[in-house]
Amino acid sequence: MKGNRPAGQRRRHNDLAVIPGLTAGLSLAALLIATLVTISAAMASFSARADSGTQSLQEHDWNHTIPKVIFATRQQQPITSAPSSVTIITREMIQAQGAFHLAGILRLVPGFQVFLSNGSTFGVTPHGFSDRDPRRLEVRVNGRSAYLPQLASVAWESLGVLPEDVDYIEVVRGSNVPAYGSNAILGAVNIVTRNPVVAAGSRIDITSGDAQTRIASFSHSAKLTDSELLLRGAYKESHGFDGVDDAAHMGHLVASGVFTPNLSHSLEFEMGLSQGDFGVGDGDHLDEFTNDDRHAFWVNGRWKYFSSDDQHWNFGLSWADYRYENSRPVLLSSLLQVPPAWIPLLVPGHEDEALELETGRRDFAVFNAELEHHLEWQSGQQLVWGLGARGDLLHTDHFVRGDGKVDTWVYYLFANVNKPLNRRWEMNGGFMLEKKNGFDAELSPRLALNYHYRPGQHLRISATRAYRQPALMESDRLWTVRFADGDLVDLVHSSDPDIGSEQVDTLEIGYLGFWGQGRWSLDIKLFQEQVRDAIDGIDTNENSCSVLLTGIEALLRRYCQSFFVDGDYGAPFDKRQRVFTNSGNWETDGLEAELSYKLDDSRSLRLTYAYLESEGSRIKSLEDGLSFGDYEDAVPRHSASLLLTQALGNHWRFNGFAHYVDQVAWRSGTDVDSYTRLDLNLGRTWRWANNEAELTLTLQNVADADYLEFQRNNHFGRRAFISFSLAWP
Questions:
Q1: pLDDT tens, 25-68?
Q2: Could you tell me which residues come within 8 angstroms of residue 681 by beta carbon, excluding any fewer than 6 positions away?
Q3: Which pTM value belongs to this model?
Q4: Chain-centre distance of CA 126, in angstroms?
Q5: What domains are defined for the chain?
């Protein structure tokens, strides 16, 4: 248990500092609303001409075309009533895009960036500002929060889900802490796999292609008395990028089911395991790549009790256990570039030996218990409230304080209410109260107003203040390099003992419109996002920290940490130390848009666009004076995608996906130039009796203009794949 920081003694930051910036953003509301009303009128006029000869639509005619969402507030509601922008990715869209990796599907989301940090390891982040382990995004798979507790990041390649397993995905584009807690500070993703009740029968899928890619998967469902069961598994391997030692092999096996003894009770459960080895490393140092061995096991269940037509209860319980291990031993003489015989002279009592420079063995686990109560009144008012407890546990050899074991618990209370004010206006309000061991309790509220000014035309304005509390290796990091007998060689990283929560204030103004009996839809939002006290690393130097340099005395006192660990000197050879603390501040102003058009049952078009303007800085270094890092290029200014689906007849189909990303500078990666990528796939389906087979050719990056993914040497060129699937009852 954390013992270095009594509760209530973390640094408290100025909560009012960012309010003027947010209120200034309100001046944009009138301009946006006027623009959206003009767009709405133009689209309505166009749609009316397209639908000439049909009768005028009433409000009830639109209800069946408006999709329902759950993930914005934990309660089912029309997407037009949600307090945030929500992107729904359907199974048809997933099949049309042709991604072979789960994370790649999220390239369909405006404002999200997806990258390959290595050949088979992905990062996903909303609005940039990320390193190879993106944080600030909540990801759930069938109700289970799928984060790694050490950094609250997501190992996408270890989730045990392939694109063909997914039924649909909901993405909340904006802070969703009031519904799902600290990790959702910039967004939230809800991945729902195919239900055992729906995925009847058996299926196999096989893919082979460039980069020595091999993917084989299966699924089989069975019906028992009052139950439906589904078993699925997969094996994947890939050579990775050319010239980089980042090959990967991975597999998973998952069993899930639904038990419904009567109409009032149901139980959904899932149990899975994933195992793989991944070549990981920094593209600037190809000789330092290592093999990371990763094992994961998880189990989760959700009991639902419908006590009446207007209220029900949900109780969820989940446990996930992870074991990761990698190693890169290097002789001390090689590090110091001296003959081995010199080591006893430089370090009395020691001979030359190999030192572990990687993270070694990491064992961690996540436990979550959660209760929800849903109520609904005849007036249309909805309320969901609940409480829960979450435990994060970490054990690592030389990466955290104390004996290498850290555990922390978070207790939380939440509520979200949706209340119609009249025929046109409705209000959403919600909050999340979180109390983490060793930190102050944090209250994250949200308030939104939705205005339905005509059938199929909707406006929204919402404001959120949210907090993200530090993850285990942000608050308790102490990375040391030691001899086999435990003697200290070097202190590499440490955490500021007064580290506090990150704060994000968001103002969002949005428009959502439908025309042509739901064939057209347009989602536009304008937002301002201010991040304060972001957690990042500051490079310090013992020499600088021991001298109060003129002009930065206060910073040296605040951020310089001791170079001694339990009385042992941590800087005999390297005088540097990176300290993790609240050192970053930035603001992002932007626009996100989605336009969908279904021409007919055989053709559809989907266009997304995001414009992001950012500014901010962080304290980068206190070595030899004060150095700031610029956040200006930490987010791509422009990004866009186009998804085209076309049924060709005679059981042929053709799909195309084009994706553009502007230049961006990744933390711990490199400056990546803008690029455009075009993926195409052509498929043929055969059906006989109740069986179905499909053969698909997929071409990625058809233009064959190599572009960089995240870091140097990750050159993505043209790739081709052939896939075959067979399904039977």
A1: 444 444 444 445 444 454 445 444 444 433 333 444 444 478 99
A2: 96, 98, 654, 655, 656, 696, 697, 698, 699
A3: 0.90
A4: 7
A5: 19-728 (2.40.170.20)
